[in-house]
Predict the 3D structure of the following.
Amino acid sequence: MSSVYFPPKKAFQVFGRSQEELASLGVSDSQLPAFARSHDNRQLKSWSLNEMPQLGGLIGFMKKPERPIAAAVFVTKGGVLKSTLTFNLARMAALHGIRTCVVGLDMQGDVTTALNVDDAADEEASLDEALAKISSLRGLADVFTGEAKLEDVLRPTEIPTLFYIPETPELVALDQSLVNRNRREFWLQDHVIEPLKKSFDLILMDCSPNWNRLITNALVACDVLVSPLECKINNFRNFKTFQSLLAEFKTDMRTSFTQVYVPTRLQPTRKLSREIQEWYRAQLAECVAGSVRESTQGEESVAVRLSIPEHAPTSVAADEMRELLREIWSLMPLESRLRASGETARRAQELSI
Ligand SMILES: Nc1ncnc2c1ncn2[C@@H]1O[C@H](COP(=O)(O)OP(=O)(O)O)[C@@H](O)[C@H]1O
Ligand SMILES: [Mg+2]
């Protein structure tokens, strides 16, 4: 269980608010959640992560969507903060009382590492215990083979509104197995995302930078595609290729989704970095105004497995992350798009992406 506690001032700061704003938000003291209790059942003057989603629902800046939303975080480049953005979006949405599930689709497993709080405890385990635990870990590949049900691979986190499906090494095999399947581009949508939409408001797919079959599945299943773009010169060429591949994909599959580009690793003191951000904003209608800057708080927060607003709530990096999440959230479709038609399904079978 987490030992993170939030005294009221800090709890409000996580959402970029102060207690003085309560009345203007139309919230009374009596609506606030009860404080957490210690092990000996004493009331603490703090909220734990258990109470935070209730607080976030009252004072936060992300509203619960009317319909469930599936978002893929993908671009064909590594190290551009895909997993970091997924993680921040997931934790902050969950802290707003939005029931969130992260689906890890990258064999690197970074988002699983960030979400798995048991990992630290594992350091003390014996090799036998650790091996037993690791081999009992079930993931999407087990759902595919029928060895596990979807509910068996969902793992809780220390935030009651946040769950995830961990990446396992067998994802490689799953990717291969999808080749020989009918409706192979639709497996994730039919067997994972649509069923998850019955229990969650937000499903976030953290993608690998390699465009494999799992990623094609994620693109078919998503309502929104979030693509981080590094504010670095060597990202340019990669971005152009990505853009044209994506346009081709959308035409071939006759699919559509809302697109959001997010400039990342901005170095505000570097002229070139700023100019690249400006270029993205000017040239791409889908590019947000906000960005994620290169920062030590950003790096640290991943290491301590917290979102930036939780880890360093009063930092510039946290302000920018909240603003960015607010902006991304405002672009999310409240009504999820109509699911793929029979025509799209037929086309998909003809293709072998
Ligand atoms: N704001 C930041 N500034 C600098 N480094 C960061 C920031 N946020 C995260 N990082 C670091 O960048 C690394 C790569 O980010 P990650 O989200 O894993 O990229 P991707 O998923 O696109 O491969 C992370 O391991 C993390 O340590
Ligand atoms: Mg990643």
Observations:
- Residues 235-253 form the longest helix (19 residues).
- The chain is about 45% helix and 15% strand.
- The chain has a mean pLDDT of 91.
- Residues 61-337+344-350 form a domain with the Rossmann fold fold (CATH 3.40.50.300).
